[in-house]
Structures
1.
Amino acid sequence: MHLQGSYLFLVFLGTVSVFTACSEHEHANATMATFNVLDYGAVSGGHIDNALAFLDAWNATCSSEAENSTLIIPRRRFLVNPTTFNGPCKAQSINFVILGRLLAPKSPEAWKDLDPGQWLAFHGVNGLKVAGPGTINGRGKRWWNQSCRYHPKLALKVLSCKKSCLRDIHFINSSQAHVLIEGCDGIKIENLIIEAPGNSPNTDGIHIQSSQNVIINNTIIGSEYDYSLLGDDCISIGDHISNIAISYIKCGPGHGISIGSLGKSGNVVHVENIHVSKVTLQGTTNGARIKTWQPTGVHISDVSFKNFYGTSSTNIAINLNCSRSVPCTGILLKSVYLRSAIVGQNVTSSCRNAYGIAFGLVRPSPCIQF
Ligand SMILES: *[C@@H]1O[C@H](CO)[C@@H](O)[C@H](O)[C@H]1NC(C)=O
Ligand SMILES: *[C@@H]1O[C@H](CO)[C@@H](O)[C@H](O)[C@H]1NC(C)=O
Ligand SMILES: *[C@@H]1O[C@H](CO)[C@@H](O)[C@H](O)[C@H]1NC(C)=O
Ligand SMILES: *[C@@H]1O[C@H](CO)[C@@H](O)[C@H](O)[C@H]1NC(C)=O
Ligand SMILES: *[C@@H]1O[C@H](CO)[C@@H](O)[C@H](O)[C@H]1NC(C)=O
Ligand SMILES: *[C@@H]1O[C@H](CO)[C@@H](O)[C@H](O)[C@H]1NC(C)=O
Ligand SMILES: *[C@@H]1O[C@H](CO)[C@@H](O)[C@H](O)[C@H]1NC(C)=O
Ligand SMILES: *[C@@H]1O[C@H](CO)[C@@H](O)[C@H](O)[C@H]1NC(C)=O
């Protein structure tokens, strides 16, 4: 593990409890309705665009009077051009079940006159449950060697949701971030596999911003497969975030787990109660970091590092590099044992303007100021 970058982070106060569409408080009596995209003209095989068929099926699902309404994508391959599935819907519980494989168009031409910032998006749908066990393949290769502004940025974007859930999906090769959560209150993300090659630029795993009450659990980001590495942060957390619990994550290769960069605008940003636990980072360029911009709006406080074990590929294994104008305070280091990945080499801690305490075993020796 390699901890580097401006600041570091981890494990905070309080607990995160989220009521989401995943926690199925089943209504045994809920009226149900099911809509299969094949009944709305979808054609499988991967050559014909199905955006309109999917939208028609979505419209039926979303406007259904049933309490629990389900759109089904069967176990086949479907090419889908950039599409937004809009809410609000009538049903309390809206399921988008992907049994098959969704393919993005290979050519950037498909984004002509469309928002290049997204491929598949859900907007303003409450009680949304997007579930697998299917695949979402961004086929991003053709974009990776182009300038960023031509990238469709996100494979799956969930905007302005409440009590929602994303689970059991395999994401592959997005042109940029695989999953973006923005403006949501109460979302659980679990059992995802997200993979893209390490030489793909900016292919973040999951990015969250302006959201609260988020659980990310039991997810593999990067890949266990040899050929596949993730080109950017496994999980990144942007401005205006609170109550996030991230657990049972396997991350790497990639850039690790990042909070920030915060405070780009120079305004005060609130990012609080972020709890990261049971995370394995392997072959990542960083472990866990908090990054901020130079403006003085960002005060990092009450950050705990507990039970951190592993190896670092660089000499500085713990880097608390805080701003002179707004030092980091309330940093806690407890039970940290980091060695060099290279046998016989030593690792060190580096501190600048970092205040707090260390107790229990902490190696390399902490340089934090009381
Ligand atoms: C909705 O219906 C699906 C089956 O179509 C079921 O798996 C799911 O648990 C139901 N959800 C709720 C909240 O009742
Ligand atoms: C379901 O229906 C049964 C029998 O009609 C009723 O007793 C029960 O209260 C209902 N449950 C809910 C959650 O509506
Ligand atoms: C959506 O479905 C409703 C009811 O089934 C229908 O009245 C409406 O025209 C549909 N809208 C679109 C855009 O297809
Ligand atoms: C990107 O790669 C493709 C082949 O993989 C090539 O045809 C194209 O010219 C490259 N574009 C740039 C901007 O390098
Ligand atoms: C992802 O893209 C890379 C590079 O084009 C390719 O080698 C790999 O097979 C793709 N992965 C999948 C699962 O299609
Ligand atoms: C997260 O996943 C683990 C392992 O699958 C499971 O034991 C745990 O209960 C889950 N936690 C939450 C909050 O869902
Ligand atoms: C600390 O941050 C400053 C400013 O970003 C940078 O110049 C310096 O190299 C960093 N030091 C370490 C040890 O990372
Ligand atoms: C590592 O640290 C130990 C104990 O402080 C010291 O004896 C040894 O020479 C150091 N090794 C290197 C390669 O700096």
2.
Amino acid sequence: MDFFEKAYAIEQDNRDELKHFRKQFAIDDPNLIYLDGNSLGMLPKATPERIQKVIHNEWGRKLIRSWNEGWYERSQEIAAKLAPLIGAKPHEVIMADSTSVNLFKLAYAVLHLQTGKKAIVSDELNFPSDIYLLQGLVKLFGDKHELRLARSHNNMGVSKNEIVEKLKDDTALLTLSHVAFKSSFMYDMKEITDLAHEKGAMVLWDLSHSAGAVPVKLNECNVDLAIGCTYKYLNGGPGSIAFLYVREDLQEKLVSPIWGWFGQKDPFNFRLDYEPADGIQRFLAGTPPVLSLSAIEPSLDLMNEAGIDNLRDKSLTQSRYLIELCKHFLEPLGFSLGSPVKDRERGSHVSIRHPEAYRICQALIDPKTGGKSVIPDFREPDNIRLGITPIYTSYMDIYEAVMQIKTIAEQKLYNRFSLQKGRVT
Ligand SMILES: *Cc1c(COP(=O)(O)O)cnc(C)c1O
């Protein structure tokens, strides 16, 4: 059978051992292909019912009694279901705040501990919010730290040597995105963590683009700290609560800069002196958003059932397939690959580049273009990100999306779209 024909995609879907999981998601528009699960994951069918229960039974009927019947422990319980996906012990993870706020809390705690060291290292491929937070921290600590960003030799990935150049004995903190949001480049977590430890630096990984897509081994790699969001591959819903991880032995050494009552040793004794809770609880600030927290559980149950290693295997087979289709059908039309070709250097999305990327994205999304509506996303200056979410993406999704991109580029169907960009791309 010809690899480049539709029949191949159909056959792969038939053989896919995870294919039944797709039915667990709300996919009710047969003319929609969703390839943006790396920005906002789809809705699991079980989630609305779960939230309804929390609203009607727990909030509606039991009212405030629910705090003693499950709400208080919920952050910890949800975190325990996330822990196996990121290779951590349950008591090393907690659901809290947003990814940005968690970065702030943990990076602050490190700078406060590592008083003799005056450098922070990251890279220029990192998510801008992470960099802004580091810039803000430098100001907050009185402009005494130097923020050094490792450069990328090819605008796609950062080599080990490019990190080594920036890591010196003065480094308090190395913080990186495990998978880069634009190119999907993925670091070797163990190798980079070891390098930083050799220099006495602590390491904080942002797992926003890897949690739920790539098996992360925080304990095995001896990682100090990690953060990440739950609305991407973890399908927790828009703005769902984020997570943070602090290695067991560091929990007593680090103190959150936000001394809220949920991080206090015994919040309900209402003492006026703050004493941080033992363990991971101390990184909480205030009351958790119970509705949003509960919404994450159905997806985590599906992820654990599917198994993160199986999800990764499927993601890799699918991204290799996508890359081959792009080479065959799209490179002749002026596209180039914006993601690493080596499996071990790539997360779960594939970026393709084209000078007209923005308008091609508009044409893909607009149902008036003809064919199915395809939702990827656009990242400056010329990236179309095609997100593979192995728990629900099919081979046909990938095949049809590539065919649609081909048609749009060949016939220049993007010409009728404006170059003016919307607020959210
Ligand atoms: C998505 C993402 C975030 C999001 O942060 P929020 O606080 O949820 O807005 C942070 N870092 C990275 C690397 C991301 O990909």
